[in-house]
Amino acid sequence: MKKEQHKNPRGVLRELFHYMRGCWGQTIGAWVSVIIEALCEVTIPFLMQPMIDVINSPDWPSTNTTSRIASALSGYSQIDAIWILASIMAAVAIVSALGGIFGGFFASEASARFGRNLRQAMYYKIQGFSFENIDHFSVSSLVTRLTTDVTDVQFALQMILRMIVRAPLMIVMAFVLATITCWKLSWVFLIAIPVLGTVLVVIALVTHPTFVKVFNAYDDLNESVKENLEGIRVVKSFHREDFEKEKFGKLSYFIYANFAKAESVLAWNSPVFSIVMNGTMLLISWLGALLVTQVNSTFTVGQLSSFFTYAAQILNALMFLSMGFVMVIISRNGAERITEVLQEDPSQKDPVNPVGEVPDGSVSFRHVSFKYFKEGEKDVLHDINIDIPSGSSLGIIGVTGSAKSTLVSLIDRLYDVSSGELLVGGHNVQDYRIHDLREAVGMVLQKNALFTGTIRSNLKWGNENATDEELWRACDIAQASEFVHSFPQGLDSPIDEGGTNVSGGQKQRLCIARALVKRPKILILDDSTSAVDTHTDSLIRQGFLHDLPGMTRIIVAQRLLSIKDCDQIIILEDGKILAKGTHEELLKNSKEYQELYETQLGGGGDFDE
């Protein structure tokens, strides 16, 4: 299982408090409604006492009662007095019910808005993350935090606004009125309340570490599902369904086992509460009966009945408090994980005084080294020195794992160099605003991605204001026009999720066209023609030469034919430049390039072999 990213994020509650904006009206409404509901609930037993005393008065109207309310009704007949009290109690009960309804509505509205604010803030924050930040959390973990964790915290807030605010209020008011009713019995609560409070604290301390493991396991489970669905064709083709089931089953069982372990501890809450509640009621019954039956006792049956009701209200409030407390325990880890994302500092930031627009497409690597993790021992790229004049072309070739993709990812700051200096247009890439830099660079990544929508909407990622003429021109250069025209709806043809309704070669050409729609100063193709035939690859390269003469082109390829006409070619091996020059120069001076040429163009074969 993955380890927790940060163990002690600063100010979890203080951080989450900021996202209550837009919720305060509903929050205050919930609190006011809850207060009204609680006041009405404790008023009902206060009115119950005189009603029972009126009913139990054989010589009514009699003023020999401890209840001032009953004494005030002595001018009415017994039936009229009962009706008056019953009407008042009914009205109070209706107001209490309305308070509960509105309290639930306002609490639900406030928690839903809070959840929306959190999701939106996290999503916007993630959009500003660099690859380094995303690698730090992992994609599956970010998905879990945006969904499961936010939902748990949202439900916890709803419980807090209602039960965890209402319960302490009920406990205090009912305890005060119970003490006024009979202070000789109220000491019973001074035993019950601390016992239940201690049990809740112990449960929280024991279960929280287990829930931390469970939520980290959710990340791994989501990662397994994500990998399986993205690679479902590979799974099917290799008939690895059983293996994937077994992997998923192990993670699922781990979550089940730890949840069961935590729930077995939480389960103690209910029996302990029942024991304390029943013991409290039995003790009150015994002591109350003794007080009522004492000679010359002023403690009436009405007072005892009211005291029972106050006791039930106190104990029920404790039960709801424990339920809310359990929800808070479950959501605590989620709140910490959400806060980690919100407090994560993006590793890439815009400079205070940025350089303006990128002047040209020149690129210079000056003693550039790079490692993915600062604490890493070995550089992925080591002492790279390259000068690429504006409008020229650079071909990069090397075995799998030689850091070709990493090298080109530094140009538009998908990653930042660890040491050395990388210049674009004569300025350090870190001197530009990230937006301005990436506007000047068109990049077709090794993993091509199309998004749900249409061909037009995907191409307009390059320039949302592009005309149809510009879109078709980009398709012409990328050799995509022919198959786009063959679709019944042309540019408005739908693209399924992930581009699954087009072939690999079509997807690559659409991604190249999307980058060309930007009209970038620098175009980077990271092995982006591997799925097209050599003839189409040649036509694409000719289109670059004839139609984009001023654009700097950087081509990463496994196929020598894709780069042989470049102005410069470098061979990467283990993050270092093994050889550099033109095709003719490398054929004369580089043994590795000669072997590559013979393998691919002389006798055929695969470069990695």
Which terms summarize this structure?
single chain, 609 residues, alpha/beta, ABC transporter transmembrane region fold, Rossmann fold, 3 domains, 6-stranded mixed sheet, 4-stranded antiparallel sheet, 12 strands, 10% strand, disordered N terminus, disordered C terminus
Question: Can you offer a commentary on this structure?
Answer:
- The chain is of the alpha/beta class.
- The protein folds into 3 domains: 13-343, Up-down Bundle (ABC transporter transmembrane region fold), CATH 1.20.1560; 358-439 and 552-609, P-loop containing nucleotide triphosphate hydrolases (Rossmann fold, 3-Layer(aba) Sandwich), CATH 3.40.50.300; 441-519, Rossmann fold (3-Layer(aba) Sandwich), CATH 3.40.50.300.
- It has 21 helices and 12 strands.
- It has helices spanning 12-17, 24-55, 68-72, 78-127, 131-137, 139-181, 183-186, 189-230, 232-237, 241-266, 269-293, 301-343, 404-409, 434-439, 455-459, 468-477, 481-486, 504-517, 534-547, 583-589, 591-602, and strands at 363-370, 381-388, 393-398, 419-424, 427-428, 441-444, 453-454, 494-495, 522-526, 552-556, 568-573, 576-581.
- It has a 6-stranded mixed sheet with strand order 6-9-10-3-11-12.
- A hairpin with a 2-residue loop joins strand 4 and strand 5.
- The longest helix is centred in the first third of the chain and has 50 residues, at 78-127.
- The protein is elongated.
- Mean pLDDT is 84; it is low at 1-9 and 603-609.
